[in-house]
Specification:
Layout: H1 7-42, H2 44-80, H3 84-110, H4 112-118, H5 123-136, H6 140-155, H7 159-182, H8 192-217, H9 232-266, H10 268-305, H11 308-335, H12 337-342, H13 352-368, H14 370-385, H15 390-414, H16 418-453
């Protein structure tokens, strides 16, 4: 067993690993954020359609990312144990499963219009959303490839390249959006279709960049050599760990997706305000997700070394970092809501006052769940690091769908609180999940400490 690090050493190592991951998550989400800002300036109706389309894409993308998330602790554990062969095996099969899942989603994107109309969306909004998804849907294949390679490289602590590739993607997306949404630089004015073309371009470029770096930086793993050969044992290992992660993610993201559908029942203006508030809250969530990913790697490597004390210290450090960030976020959301919402709206849009007023109210509700949202994602990251995924899946399903969703509907519609009530329901589900997940991890950690002492 290696010498256990001090808290200061854990903090330095976590920041060194986590800051590039936070930056890369923010940069990756900035692609979606750029779409929302530019489409909001283009037309509020178009923004509402992109909110629905983006939600459907994001839900399926994150569900498929469960297998990519599984690669991270498995590679970290294998690297901690010095097993390069296992690193290669699980990464390859993570790519296999992720691409297979992506192919299964393509019919959903192609027929998304009828699906969204059946879900109660306005026909015009559903048709525009389908236009976006028919172009952008195939981008889920390179997007999932990026997620697997990001997990692989992050687990090996090659995090800076992940940051630089995603930062480059933001610039490319903004440029193509500017040209194709508005018809600048001699390009055709394509509106929402232009945003879809930009997203496809970005995901393809990111996948190629990440793959090129992986080949160059880690030749010892030969990831793509004889890539076509199956490894059914490793495939089964990745699948067993990954499918609960995918369903756990689906439970949470699906909760927010369902909230978007409910906001769509209230009309285009509430849906646009909801989309803006969700974009802002999601930016903050990406910070916690980056810290959580660092926690997964630190926990996975500690388990690979057999270092239970180091595991607990790493958990305390990532939890403390995330809590500090959540407190800062609460202050910002409560003191600067109007400037934040106003970034997404044209000054001349007639719907601006109504969207702005509702958006400010929703950000106040979002401030309520910042701490619990941070704690649940950190707990999930730590649990994945110790490869505990099935019980967290059950806890997530109960918290979000048996508690959060009924409360959202009760407050939003039965008690006629509208969008604010829906968001209070989201906060309730996240709070229950945070308590349950954190309790799960620390009870497991106490048992490990007892076993180590014995």
């Amino acid at each position: 067993m290696s010498t256990t690090q001090t808290y200061r050493q854990h903090l330095a190592a976590t920041l060194g690993l986590g800051l590039p991951l936070v930056g890369s998550h923010l940069a990756q989400y900035a692609v979606t954020l750029t779409d929302a800002v530019m489409l909001g300036w283009y037309d509020v109706q178009v923004l509402a359609a992109q909110v629905i389309a983006g939600t459907l894409f994001f839900v399926l993308f994150l569900m498929g990312s469960g297998f990519a998330f599984a690669v991270m602790p498995m590679v970290a554990n294998a690297a901690g144990a010095g097993n390069d062969r296992q690193v290669r095996r699980v990464t390859r099969m993570g790519l296999w499963i992720s691409l297979g899942f992506g192919l299964l989603t393509l019919p959903v994107f192609w027929w998304s219009g009828p699906i969204l109309r059946m879900a109660g969306q306005e026909p015009q909004i559903a048709d525009m959303a389908q236009t976006y998804l028919r172009i952008c849907g195939p981008a889920i294949l390179p997007a999932l490839t990026v997620m697997v390679l990001k997990s692989y490289l992050s687990a090996l602590e090659h995090t800076r390249i992940v940051l630089w590739v995603t930062l480059s993607a933001v610039g490319l997306n903004a440029a193509v959006n500017y040209a194709l949404i508005f018809g600048n630089w001699g390009a055709p004015e394509m509106g929402i279709a232009g945003a879809a073309v930009a997203s496809v371009s970005v995901h393809l470029a990111s996948a190629l960049g990440m793959a090129a770096y992986a080949i160059w930086a880690t030749p010892e793993h030969a990831l793509f050599k004889r890539f076509w050969r199956p490894d059914f044992e490793a495939l089964a290992e990745v699948f067993r760990l990954g499918w609960p992660i995918g369903l756990t993610t689906l439970a949470e993201v699906g909760l927010f997706g369902a909230s978007s559908l409910m906001m769509g029942w209230l009309g285009a203006v509430p849906l646009a305000a909801h989309g803006i508030a969700l974009q802002i809250a999601s930016v903050v969530f990406m910070i916690h997700l980056g810290i959580s990913a660092a926690g997964t790697v630190r926990a996975g490597r500690a388990i690979g070394r057999g270092d239970a004390t180091g595991l607990r210290r790493a958990a305390i450090v990532v939890t403390g970092l995330s809590l500090c960030m959540a407190l800062v976020t609460v202050v910002v959301l409560l003191t600067m809501p109007e400037p934040l919402v106003g970034l997404f709206l044209s000054p001349d849009d007639p719907a601006r006052p109504a969207v702005l007023a509702l958006g400010v109210s929703l950000l106040a509700a979002a401030a309520l769940f910042q701490i619990v949202d941070a704690m649940q994602v950190i707990a999930l990251g730590l649990l994945r690091g110790v490869q505990d995924t099935r019980v967290p899946m059950i806890l997530a399903a109960i918290s979000y769908w048996l508690i959060g969703m009924p409360v959202a509907y009760l407050l939003g519609f039965t008690l006629d609180m509208g969008g604010v009530g829906v968001w209070l329901g989201l906060a309730t589900g996240l709070a229950v999940a945070a308590v349950a997940m954190m309790s799960r991890f620390w009870l497991w950690s106490i048992r490990q400490a007892a076993a180590e002492a014995a």
